[in-house]
Design a protein that fits this description.
Blueprint (H helix, E strand, L loop, with lengths): L3 E6 L6 H11 L4 E7 L10 H11 L6 E6 L3 H7 L4 E6 L2 H18 L2 E6 L9 H9 L10 H16 L1
Parallel strand pairs: 1-2, 2-3, 4-5
The chain binds 4'-phosphopantetheine (PNS).
4'-phosphopantetheine (PNS) binds next to strand 1 and helix 4.
Protein backbone atom coordinates (compact mmCIF):
# COMPACT_ATOMS: atom_id res chain seq x y z
CA UNK A 1 0.00 0.00 0.00
CA UNK A 2 1.34 3.38 -1.00
CA UNK A 3 1.12 6.04 1.71
CA UNK A 4 0.97 9.77 1.00
CA UNK A 5 1.45 12.46 3.65
CA UNK A 6 0.79 16.19 3.62
CA UNK A 7 3.23 18.66 5.10
CA UNK A 8 1.54 22.07 5.46
CA UNK A 9 2.86 25.54 6.18
CA UNK A 10 3.17 29.15 5.10
CA UNK A 11 6.75 28.76 3.80
CA UNK A 12 7.28 32.54 3.61
CA UNK A 13 9.96 31.70 2.54
CA UNK A 14 11.17 28.09 2.74
CA UNK A 15 14.25 27.66 4.97
CA UNK A 16 16.80 24.89 5.49
CA UNK A 17 14.79 23.99 8.63
CA UNK A 18 11.71 23.29 6.51
CA UNK A 19 13.79 21.37 3.96
CA UNK A 20 15.31 19.20 6.69
CA UNK A 21 11.82 18.12 7.78
CA UNK A 22 10.56 17.70 4.19
CA UNK A 23 13.56 15.56 3.22
CA UNK A 24 13.16 13.32 6.24
CA UNK A 25 9.41 12.99 5.68
CA UNK A 26 9.87 12.30 1.96
CA UNK A 27 12.26 9.46 2.74
CA UNK A 28 9.64 7.75 4.93
CA UNK A 29 6.51 8.11 2.80
CA UNK A 30 5.85 7.05 -0.78
CA UNK A 31 4.67 10.53 -1.68
CA UNK A 32 4.76 13.86 0.13
CA UNK A 33 2.47 16.76 -0.78
CA UNK A 34 3.64 20.09 0.56
CA UNK A 35 0.56 22.26 1.18
CA UNK A 36 1.32 25.98 0.99
CA UNK A 37 -1.28 28.08 2.81
CA UNK A 38 -2.57 31.04 0.80
CA UNK A 39 -3.61 33.10 3.86
CA UNK A 40 -3.43 36.68 2.66
CA UNK A 41 -4.53 37.86 6.12
CA UNK A 42 -1.01 37.09 7.37
CA UNK A 43 0.36 39.58 4.78
CA UNK A 44 3.12 37.25 3.53
CA UNK A 45 6.26 38.81 2.03
CA UNK A 46 6.01 36.44 -0.94
CA UNK A 47 2.83 35.79 -2.92
CA UNK A 48 1.67 32.18 -2.93
CA UNK A 49 2.87 31.68 -6.53
CA UNK A 50 6.34 32.79 -5.49
CA UNK A 51 6.42 30.65 -2.34
CA UNK A 52 5.42 27.64 -4.46
CA UNK A 53 8.05 28.45 -7.10
CA UNK A 54 10.80 28.72 -4.45
CA UNK A 55 9.69 25.46 -2.82
CA UNK A 56 9.68 23.67 -6.20
CA UNK A 57 13.22 24.89 -6.88
CA UNK A 58 14.40 23.89 -3.38
CA UNK A 59 12.83 20.40 -3.54
CA UNK A 60 13.69 19.61 -7.18
CA UNK A 61 16.05 16.84 -5.99
CA UNK A 62 13.19 15.03 -4.20
CA UNK A 63 11.26 13.08 -6.84
CA UNK A 64 8.34 12.06 -4.59
CA UNK A 65 7.58 15.60 -3.38
CA UNK A 66 4.82 17.75 -4.89
CA UNK A 67 4.03 21.35 -4.04
CA UNK A 68 0.45 22.67 -4.03
CA UNK A 69 -1.23 25.79 -2.72
CA UNK A 70 -4.35 25.62 -0.58
CA UNK A 71 -6.84 27.79 1.21
CA UNK A 72 -9.54 26.79 3.65
CA UNK A 73 -9.25 23.88 6.04
CA UNK A 74 -6.19 21.64 5.96
CA UNK A 75 -8.35 18.56 6.57
CA UNK A 76 -10.38 19.37 3.43
CA UNK A 77 -7.14 19.64 1.43
CA UNK A 78 -6.09 16.24 2.83
CA UNK A 79 -9.47 14.58 2.20
CA UNK A 80 -9.59 15.82 -1.40
CA UNK A 81 -6.31 13.93 -1.97
CA UNK A 82 -7.18 10.84 0.05
CA UNK A 83 -4.50 11.69 2.63
CA UNK A 84 -4.86 10.80 6.31
CA UNK A 85 -1.44 11.78 7.65
CA UNK A 86 -0.05 15.27 8.29
CA UNK A 87 3.68 15.64 8.98
CA UNK A 88 4.97 18.66 10.83
CA UNK A 89 8.28 19.74 12.31
CA UNK A 90 8.68 20.62 15.99
CA UNK A 91 11.52 22.99 16.80
CA UNK A 92 11.08 23.49 20.52
CA UNK A 93 8.72 23.00 23.44
CA UNK A 94 7.34 26.47 22.66
CA UNK A 95 5.98 25.12 19.36
CA UNK A 96 4.31 22.21 21.05
CA UNK A 97 1.26 23.77 22.69
CA UNK A 98 -0.16 25.29 19.50
CA UNK A 99 0.85 22.29 17.39
CA UNK A 100 -0.91 19.97 19.83
CA UNK A 101 -4.11 22.01 19.58
CA UNK A 102 -3.99 21.95 15.78
CA UNK A 103 -3.24 18.22 15.70
CA UNK A 104 -6.16 17.47 17.99
CA UNK A 105 -8.48 19.75 16.01
CA UNK A 106 -7.49 18.12 12.72
CA UNK A 107 -7.97 14.67 14.21
CA UNK A 108 -11.41 15.66 15.48
CA UNK A 109 -12.46 17.51 12.32
CA UNK A 110 -11.38 14.98 9.79
CA UNK A 111 -9.79 11.84 11.26
CA UNK A 112 -6.42 12.99 9.96
CA UNK A 113 -3.48 12.11 12.22
CA UNK A 114 -0.50 14.41 12.74
CA UNK A 115 3.00 12.97 13.05
CA UNK A 116 5.75 15.23 14.38
CA UNK A 117 9.39 15.16 13.35
CA UNK A 118 11.77 16.96 15.68
CA UNK A 119 13.83 19.51 13.79
CA UNK A 120 17.54 18.76 13.57
CA UNK A 121 19.28 20.73 16.37
CA UNK A 122 21.35 22.72 13.87
CA UNK A 123 18.12 24.30 12.61
CA UNK A 124 16.07 24.53 15.79
CA UNK A 125 16.53 28.32 16.06
CA UNK A 126 15.48 28.96 12.46
CA UNK A 127 12.22 30.56 11.41
CA UNK A 128 11.07 32.32 8.24
CA UNK A 129 10.33 35.45 10.30
CA UNK A 130 13.86 35.66 11.69
CA UNK A 131 15.39 35.02 8.28
CA UNK A 132 13.32 37.89 6.84
CA UNK A 133 14.43 40.16 9.66
CA UNK A 134 18.11 39.34 9.13
CA UNK A 135 17.73 39.86 5.36
CA UNK A 136 15.83 43.12 5.88
CA UNK A 137 18.81 44.59 7.74
CA UNK A 138 21.29 43.34 5.16
CA UNK A 139 22.53 40.31 7.14
CA UNK A 140 23.90 37.17 5.50
CA UNK A 141 21.19 34.48 5.28
CA UNK A 142 23.16 32.01 3.15
CA UNK A 143 23.43 29.53 6.06
CA UNK A 144 19.67 29.54 6.55
CA UNK A 145 18.04 29.36 3.11
CA UNK A 146 18.92 27.89 -0.31
CA UNK A 147 20.72 30.26 -2.74
CA UNK A 148 17.58 30.79 -4.84
CA UNK A 149 15.72 32.02 -1.73
CA UNK A 150 18.63 34.17 -0.53
CA UNK A 151 18.75 35.85 -3.92
CA UNK A 152 14.98 36.47 -3.93
CA UNK A 153 15.19 37.93 -0.40
CA UNK A 154 18.00 40.19 -1.53
CA UNK A 155 15.93 41.40 -4.48
CA UNK A 156 12.81 41.93 -2.39
CA UNK A 157 14.38 43.41 0.73
CA UNK A 158 17.59 44.88 -0.67
CA UNK A 159 16.04 48.29 -1.15
CA UNK A 160 14.75 48.36 2.42
CA UNK A 161 18.16 47.27 3.75
CA UNK A 162 19.85 50.04 1.80
CA UNK A 163 17.38 52.64 3.04
O1 LIG B 1 3.88 27.57 8.70
P1 LIG B 1 2.69 27.87 9.57
O2 LIG B 1 2.19 29.28 9.33
O3 LIG B 1 2.97 27.61 11.03
O4 LIG B 1 1.54 26.85 9.12
C1 LIG B 1 0.27 26.89 9.72
C2 LIG B 1 -0.72 25.95 9.01
C3 LIG B 1 -0.75 26.23 7.52
C4 LIG B 1 -0.31 24.53 9.22
C5 LIG B 1 -2.10 26.21 9.65
O5 LIG B 1 -2.33 27.58 9.71
C6 LIG B 1 -3.25 25.56 8.89
O6 LIG B 1 -3.36 24.35 8.84
N1 LIG B 1 -4.11 26.39 8.29
C7 LIG B 1 -5.23 25.95 7.50
C8 LIG B 1 -6.56 26.31 8.16
C9 LIG B 1 -7.01 25.21 9.10
O7 LIG B 1 -7.17 24.08 8.72
N2 LIG B 1 -7.19 25.60 10.36
C10 LIG B 1 -7.58 24.68 11.41
C11 LIG B 1 -6.37 23.87 11.84
S1 LIG B 1 -6.51 23.38 13.44
Amino acid sequence: MSVTAVSPGSFDPVTYGHLDVLERAASRFDRLIVGVLRNESKHPLFAIEERIELLRAATAHMPNVEIEGFSGLLVDFCHARGVRVIVKGLRAVSDFEYELQMAQMNSRLGDVETLFLTTSPVYSFLSSSLVKEVARYGGDVSDFVPPVVAERLRQRLGDQAAG
